Amino acid sequence: MGSFIFCRRLWRWNPERAEPFENEEQRPCSCWSPEMTPSTKMALIEQGDTAAPENCQRLVILGSSKVGKTSLVSRFLNNKFDDGYTPTIEDFHRKIYRIKGEAYRLDILDTSGNHPFPAMRRLSIITGDLFLLVYSIDNRESFEEVERLCQQIQECKTQCRTQTGERRRKFGIPIVVVGNKCDREKSRVIDPSEALHLTEVYENCQFIEASAKKNINIEESFTRIFDLGNLPLEMSPSLHRKVHPFYVSGSSSPTGRRGMSIRRKMSDACGTIAPNVRRPSIRTDLMVAQMRTKTSAISKADVKDKCVIQ
Ligand SMILES: Nc1nc2c(ncn2[C@@H]2O[C@H](COP(=O)(O)OP(=O)(O)O)[C@@H](O)[C@H]2O)c(=O)[nH]1
Ligand SMILES: [Mg+2]
Question: Where are the transmembrane segments (predicted)?
Answer without folding.
Answer: none
